[in-house]
Amino acid sequence: MKKSVKKLLKAKPVTDFLGNPCILVDNELECAFKQILFRQILHRTGFKKRSGDCLISVMYSLLIWPLLSVQSISNFCGRKLSCYMKGGENVLYDFLKREDLNWRKLQYNTAKTIYLENGLKNEQIRAFVFDDTIKHRRGKRVEGSSWHFDHTEGRSVQGQQVLEMGLVTPKGYLPIDSQIYVSASKAILKEDKFADSRSAVALDYADACDLNKNEMMRDMMKRSLRAGIVANYVITDSWFGNKGNIYETKQLDLTGFFRMKCGTTNYRVNGRLLSDKALYVLLKKKARPIKGMPWKAFSITVELNFEKESGIKDDWHEVLLVFTVPKDEYSGKYGLFLCTDTELTPQKVLEIYSLRWSIEVYFKEVKQHMGFLSEQTGNYACHYASIHLSAIRYMVFSHIMMQDDSGKSLSNIRTEVATKIELLSYANILWMVFRALIHGALDSLIDSIGELVVKIVKTTIDSTVLDFLEEALQIDKVSLDIETKANKKRNEINFYGDLAPVG
Fold first, then answer.
1. Which of 14, 83, 308, 449 is most buried per CB count within 10 Å?
2. Nearest-angstrom CA–CA distance, 280 and 297
3. Nearest-CA neighbor of 144 among 212, 74, 206, 217?
């Protein structure tokens, strides 16, 4: 059952009304943050803020702005920031640019907490999934952008490529690690040096420029296992299907499922070296339909030489090759998969490999709805923070989905939560208006019922509503007072501006 940590309101009629299931006011996002002890995670990761808006207000604003029907942080600050914190756009961007914050570690710690909270370590199927995506960039000063080949468009583009590692289980997908990759082609490097070359963002930038994606992938696997997030499978597409990654997977005692590029590797069968194309021609008649899938498939156990990877001469290891062909395909085209467990059937190999689709869904979700690299700046530290913030947003919704018994998809939960937060934001703005009307009406009754009674009624109403808004929106009375004064000043400017003569 979903745990409830919602604070009870003092006024019973209001509580009864808000308890109606048709009234969307419960901030499930804030409830999820409390369930995973997000404040403690921030403290444990070393996130601190000494002055101005408190750390929680800034972090909450950064995490929710993509959910509030705004296109950028600037738009959010202009329309709805006052509901959450007193500062402006510069406060958020300055926080993102801080080099002393380890956003990657924050993602790891959040993932580890959700991993344990939802019992993912007890799932029989736990697979590390790897893939990359590209964010197109046209700016000439976007640090860390470079030239990459975009498979979806079939051409090379300027942008930022991000390598993602996630853990997929029957319960859902959990993004564990993210890293920007900078290629050597048309790279826009950082002009200024980092204040501290040992900071997390400086080390991340050095790896982004120096390592290739295969090296990043292997480092991610080792880092996750050291952190206590364990899996029994590794799933990748054909870009990562090479001997180095296969060998590293075997060394870590994981079962690898790799999509392989056709015609690039020779395999040993009965003492003969054959290409996958030659094997397909010899064995294609053995292909059999797979129940519930639109393919025919057959498998064969072969040997692969890891001499270069291990440094041992003639280091041959058995692997399983699975060939797939569409049921109505006669042109000779085929798909090739490699599994390090030779005991599995073709159907089982394809079933487990199909879990890779979860990371494609993740990329689509964070790009469209969770602010993935949407910050309007060329600063690398902001981009470093952005990819991890997007992952944390997704993780929190994934946690809500795992705790929910209704069977709703993550996208449905995200839509509902965004609607609730949107409603709560407008509730705060409307309360400013109603508060002024209520106070004005009560002031007119001072002569009849006395100033002390009016003051007590005002205080009671304020405390009741503010308790709810503070719990739901992470705001306080100071923020409300500042926003009220700002709105009053803004209205005066607009009023006189409308009356100003033209020309």
1. 83
2. 11
3. 206
User: What is the rounded end-to-end Cα distance, in angstroms, of the chain?
Assistant: 66
Q: Is residue 338 a contact partner of residue 281, using CB atoms and an 8 Å limit? A: no
pLDDT at 429: 53
Mode of pairing for the β-strands spanning 127-136 and 233-236: parallel
Amino acid at 4: S
Instruction: Classify 269 as helix, strand or coil.
Output: strand
User: Do residues 317 and 304 lie in contact, with contact meaning Cβ atoms separated by under 8 Å?
Assistant: yes
Report d(CA 408, CA 411) in Å as an integer: 8
Torsion 196-201-205-208 (CA) sign: positive
**DSSP code at position 71:** S
Helix (H, G, I), strand (E, B) or coil at 159: strand
Instruction: List, in sequence order, every residue forming a beta bridge with 156; answer none if it has no partner.
Output: 149
Which tokens belong to 360?
Answer: 């494609």
DSSP 170: T
Give all domains of the chain, ordered by start, each with its CATH number.
103-363 (3.90.350.10)
A 10 A CB-CB count for 38 gives: 22
Angstrom CA distances, 315 to 214, 248, 251, 268, 366, stand at: 21, 14, 13, 12, 42
Residue 95 has pLDDT above 80, yes or no: yes
Which pTM value belongs to this model? 0.78
Q: Mapping DSSP to helix (H, G, I), strand (E, B) and coil, where does residue 452 land? A: helix
3-state secondary structure 22-44: CCCCCCHHHHHHHHCCHHHHHHH
Q: For the segment 186-218, what is each residue's pLDDT rounded down to a tens digit?
A: 999 988 899 999 999 999 999 999 999 999 999
**Pair of tokens at residue 56:** 């929680």
Quick check: 294 and 259 in contact, CB under 8 A?
A: no
Exposed, middle or buried by CB within 10 Å (0-12, 13-18, 19+), for 303?
A: middle
The predicted pLDDT at position 426 comes to 54
Q: Encoding tokens for residue 472? A: 């739901």
Q: How would you classify the pairing of strands 155-169 and 335-339?
A: unpaired
**Structure tokens, 369:** 């709805």
pLDDT value at 454 more than 90: no
Phi and psi (nearest 5°) for 276? -65, -30
Q: Which residues contact 159 (CB under 8 A, 6 or more apart)?
A: 134, 135, 136, 137, 145, 146, 148, 150
Residue in this structure with the two tokens 């019973």, named with its chain if needed: 12
Q: Is 435 exposed, middle or buried (0-12, 13-18, 19+ CB in 10 A)?
A: middle
Query: Parallel, antiparallel, or unpaired: how do β-strands 316-326 and 335-339 relate?
Result: antiparallel
The helix/strand/coil state of 411 is helix
Question: What is the structure's pLDDT at 497?
Answer: 40
Q: Where are the alpha helices (DSSP H) in 232-323?
A: 243-251, 276-283, 307-310
